[in-house]
Amino acid sequence: MSETPKPSKVPGQGIPGLERRFIAASIRLTARFYSKDRITAMFREEAHQAIELAARLSLEDGQRPVAISRFFGVEADSCDWSVFMVLEHLVIANTAITALLPRLFSRRDPCVDFPLEDLKPLPTAGPEQIESLATLRERYTEVVDKLGNLHAGSRCPHPWFGNLSAAQWHALAAFHTSTHRRQIERILKAN
């Protein structure tokens, strides 16, 4: 009898290559055909929904890790997080993108090494992540609104999706937030 393989615990290894290529193409198409303001609105709505879902939870329910099945766009090693861990991950990742966008736009040494393991949340993440994500949503919007054409400027490589412009990183922020909002919904359903 053969054993079922366990999900990979190496960051980024839990998303199959074909799926990564599809996501990369989707990011590029979104950045090309959607306006900056439309992508910002998508980001804001997804963050708002994640905040609303988490705000209903007690400390105990929000910190309880829940195993869910991996779905499109989610790494296998993040499928046992709590809701508050998901929020903390969104805060960490989107804070990095918020800092990156102006650097790309202005062509100031934009590429910064940000190891994937630094994007992982702590199991102790708590309800403070709700306010952190709400604050970040506003800060992100302010930064993006101040920038002009996000297609101008330089590019910076994403470890899975290749060289991305500021417009493409912006689309990635919306896609990423949407993916993890769906993760929160699945956690709540499984809980």
Automatic annotation (TrEMBL):
Protein name: DinB-like domain-containing protein
InterPro entries: DinB-like (IPR024775), DinB/YfiT-like (IPR034660)
UniProt-listed Pfam families: DinB_2 (PF12867)
Limits of the DinB-like domain: 47-184
